[in-house]
Amino acid sequence: MDGGQRIADDAGAIPAERGTPSPSRTINLALQGGGAHGAFTWGVLDRFLEEPRLTIEGISGTSAGAINGIMLLAGMVDGGREGARERLATFWRRVADAALWSPLQPSPLDRAMGNFNLDHSPAYQAFDLMTRLFSPYQLNPLGVNPLKDIIVELVDFERVHAASSIKLFVNTTNVRTGKIRVFPNAELSVDALLASACLPSLHRAVEIDGEHYWDGGFMGNPAMFPLLYNCKASDIVLIEINPIAIDHVPESAREIIDRVNTISFNATMMREMRTIAFVTRLLDQHRLTGRSHLRRINFHMVEANAELARYGVSSKLSPDWAFLQALFALGRAKASAWLDDNYAKVGVDSSIDLQRLFF
Is 183 helix (H, G, I), strand (E, B) or coil? Predict the structure, then answer.
């Protein structure tokens, strides 16, 4: 699915008509990327899977969001909701185990401060400098990626290809054309997942069918249009780990780079959300009467911007098990609070102010 042209051709078109609320609510999930901070999403998903009143129809994911999505889907195929929860937990445990002997570890000072970042790690400082001076083609000529073995171990792609319980859309960016490519269930592979999480400064571009791909965040973190055009549910829940707005102006070099990347990665999503907000406003004002191919989209968000900000930028590269568990617990807590406060709005209305957030 190549969505670049479709976005241009169909901007503003939100197909089908609005559904009616029911005791069991169906949602679509939009999962952002963000390295180790993806463990926060793991916690949110774990709580959602535990909620019998909630059904997931589709997932659009980028980078860590795509990895969380494939683990949820693979686990669901093998063992239902509990299988999905177990597969997600196993994945993040494997990530922590694989990083045990990595030189990128929090220093004793970082651990004492309880922020789980790598700011005082000499190895991280050296690594940060090296990635600015040399490309991954020089630093990692063999293209070694420990994530590949973990995905291969935990995902049976033949079973995923045939799955219909949840629609998963994995976002990547075509290096040559600059267009987004979205991989649906039937086209998923370990390379598609690695491409979705391929940061150009850290990994070589991933080749698929003769084309090369980078992180999907450049063109959608994540893309919303796959959920609009391929799913019936009218509610999208964004699990946000890259804040749209922040409270302070970044000052350090690493903070500035991270904020530039966040703004860039959020740009396409912001444009899509402005379209959704604009159409929603027209529908609310009854200015699109008779346009049956449009439907109202209810938008929701689970976030922990203040809590995640305290960990710092470098913590995204710190898969320390204690840190991942802390993020998991935070995600579960935020998901529970969201369900308490907003479950009744699912299928009825947005739980955030679209105009304030995206205009």
Answer: strand
